Structure formats: structure tokens, C-alpha cells
Amino acid sequence: MSDAAATIPTMRAYEITYRIVPAGVGPDDYEPGDLEQHVERYDLSDPEPTGVEVAGVQQHYGPHKAEAERAIRDRHGIEDGALPIVSKIRSVD
Q1: The dihedral sign for the CA sequence 74, 40, 37, 66
Q2: Which pLDDT belongs to residue 25?
Q3: 33: three-class secondary structure by DSSP
Q4: Which of 25, 45, 89, 93 is most buried (CB neighbours < 10 A)?
Q5: How many CA atoms does the CB half-sphere of 17 hold within 13 Å?
Q6: Residue 68's closest CA among 28, 29, 18, 21?
Q7: Which residues, at least 6 apart from 2, have a Cβ–Cβ distance to it below 8 Å?
Q8: Is 92 helix (H, G, I), strand (E, B) or coil?
């Protein structure tokens, strides 16, 4: 395998639960329950295994939260200043 092929991350399907804080809204200006919750599927990089097995299943780290936020912004064209708040990332093989 070439070095270039070794650096290409594999992708995995993840279900992301998130809310979007609109631009111009501060942390004291809303309650999380006031924001609409979204659950969507995204293909994100599949990080390397943790080296730990549980019940015979190799465990993996999840994708970085910043990667999930970037994917949400890219898919929905979220305006500058708005903030996606990721509450859960779950693999959905």
C-alpha cells in the first residue's frame, strides 16, 4: 500500500443529533428545549480503532465533533454566526 493510500481515511455512517442556535443569539438568550432538534445521517471519517475489544467487538473512537459541525454547516448552508450544537453522534452500520 502506498503512503498516499494509507492516509486516506475510511468513511462510516453516523447519526448526528443536533440543534442550531441562530446567529445573534447568546448563551443566556435561549433554553435548549426551545430549539428544534434534528437527527440526520452523515458519512464522516472513521477514526482508528482504540485497541480495546468489548464482547469480541473492536471499539473505535467517534469522529471529531468539529468534523460533525462542519458537515452540518456544509449540508444546510448555515449562516455565519449560527452555531450547530451536537448532542450525540452514533455509528449506524
Answers
A1: negative
A2: 87
A3: helix
A4: 89
A5: 8
A6: 18
A7: none
A8: coil
The DSSP code sequence of 39-80 is EEEEEEE-PPEEEEEETTEEEEPPPPHHHHHHHHHHHHTPPT
Q: What is the pTM of this model?
A: 0.73
The span from the CA of 93 to the CA of 7, in Å, is 22
Whose cell is 477514526? That residue is 47
Question: Among all chains, which residue has been given the C-alpha cell 503512503?
Answer: 3
Dist. CA 79–CA 38, nearest whole Å: 17
Average pLDDT over residues 48-76: 84
The one-letter amino acid code at 85 reads: I
Residues above pLDDT 90, as percent of the chain = 37
The residue assigned the cell 452523515 is 42
